[in-house]
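task queued by scheduler; priority normal; single chain, no ligands, no partner chains; default sampling; output format set to C-alpha cells
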Amino acid sequence: MWNGDGTVEVNGFRVYYSEVDCVRRIFEKHPETAMNIRPKNQMVKNAYMNNLLDLIDIICLAPQELTEEELRDAESTLLELEEVGFELDWLKKKLDELCVRKKKMETRGARMRELDGMIVEQRRVLWALETERKNEENEARSDSARLGFEDVV
C-alpha cells in the first residue's frame, strides 16, 4: 500500500519505494524473518528494517572492502536484530561465510607476500649464478683461445 510519505507497506514495515523489491525478496525467500518481531511501534520496526537492509548491504561487500571492526559491528547488529525477534539464521550463515572468506583472504595475502619475498631472493641467486656463469664463459674463451706468434715468441 502506497503512503503519502514516499513509503510502501510491505509485511507490516514501511519501506521507501526504492527498497520495496529488496524487502519483498527477503520475505519471499525467508518468510520467517519477521514472524516473531516484538516491537509494535511502526517507527521502531522501520528502524530495525533499515538496520537489516544496511546489514545486507555490508554482507554484499567484498571481504577486502571490510575492516575487522566493520565485521564485528555487523555481528552486533545481527545479534540485536535477533534479540528483537528477527529470524536471521540465513543471514548469520552468510555473515559467517564472509568472515571465513576474509580470514582466508588475509592468510592468502600473507602467503603471497612470503612467496614474493622468496621469488625476489631466488632472482638474486639466479642473477649471481648467471654472473658467475658469464665469468666462467669468459675465462673458458680466454683459456681456449689460440696463441698468436707474438704470444709464443
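post-processing summary
- The chain has a mean pLDDT of 91.
- Residues 7-106 form one domain.
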